[in-house]
């Protein structure tokens, strides 16, 4: 089956269709401080390295790994969401160039589009509202909607089920992190496209299963149409 047969495109948000601009790291610093970890400390540096390596993963899963204790993880997650939401409210959230146009082109050619995230539903909805994207996609999903977040296949498979897509081979997954690539490969997607507008570089994307690496999401409609 070729990419011409793709009928569902599952897209990541931050770093893929939405500019990150360091917001995740700023929000993480606030979350760490809420748990007594000061910015610039050796402990903070170690935690930040893990955050960068696991970009794309469900945020509560990241905090569970970092803090171990469930109460601390939940506290960090709440502080993260509060800090990130404040940054969005300050106008620090914008679409990546060509992202809205790419989504419109994909849907215009009869493909369904699902926007997915590692954030909570509250934060995802705040981002969509800030961009005026409430109706830009056929479906939006966060980890709580699917059962598990990345790198598990749940987000892509939930999108398949909810859009009544017939086969995993009719699915394309695109994102900026290795975890996005793992989600796509584990879900059996025929196209797993990495984009270079976010967290991870081409070697990381390839190592985690990217079938294609694109400069940006703006190139995805042409890739699918050409094949």
TrEMBL record:
Source species, domain of life: Bacteria
Q: Name one GO molecular function term.
A: phosphoglycolate phosphatase activity
Q: What UniProt keywords are attached to this protein's entry?
A: Hydrolase
Q: Name one GO biological process term.
A: DNA repair
Against Pfam families, the record matches this protein to:
Hydrolase
Is ATP-binding set as a keyword in this record?
A: no
Q: Which GO terms describe its cellular component?
A: cytosol
Against NCBIfam families, the record matches this protein to:
PhnX-like
Q: Which PANTHER family match?
A: PHOSPHOGLYCOLATE PHOSPHATASE (PTHR43434), PHOSPHONOACETALDEHYDE HYDROLASE (PTHR43434:SF19)
Name of this protein: Phosphonatase-like hydrolase
